[in-house]
Each structure stands twice: as C-alpha cells, then as structure tokens.
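Input.
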Amino acid sequence: MSENNDYESELDGSFFEQAITIAENIPTNLSPRPPVGAVITKNGNIIGKGATSPTPGNHAEINAILDCTNNNFSTEGATMFTTLEPCFHEGETSPCVDRIIDSGISRIFVGAIDP
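Output.
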C-alpha cells in the first residue's frame, strides 16, 4: 500500500475527488463516526463505491469492497481511494485494514490520517 500523497495520474485525482463527493453527500448524521467515502478502481474504471453506514453498520471501505463483490468485480490488484485512513483496530467492527488486505487491493490513497 502506498503512503505517497502524490497522485500518479490526473485520473487518480479524479477518483479521489469522487470519494470526497461520496463523503460530502452522506445524508445522515453519523456521530460519532466521521463521514467517509471510498472508491475502488481497476484498469482505470470504478468498480466499487462505499460510504460510511450509521452505527453499527460498515465503514466506507468495507461497503466499497462489498459493492465490488455484489457486482462480480474482483478487487485483486485494485486501487482504493478513501477520504480517511482505514481503521486498524478492533472496535464496533473488525479492522478495515484486514479486509482490504484480504481483498487483494494492492494500492491505496488516503485523504487524511485517522487521529
């Protein structure tokens, strides 16, 4: 997974902007969860999108992976763009990082580090 904040192409920047738009358009108050958007791409195409669900639902990253699965897209070798660093601790949900790794996503762009 990449910790690089520089997009590798204009297309990457466009995909990240779509993740931001998803986060901005979440219609419900998720407090104490932050609104997060995630987009998964492969071969220059969006194959999955996700937004944070209200507690106790999934985080945006998991919803994006499920969107891929539900539409029969493989995430092996895909790229994820997410507005917030995926969680890596056990809490209300299992760690998103574990699911991302298990899904085969090979590269990730993160908008902000989770404080």
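Helices lie at 10-24, 60-70, 96-103.
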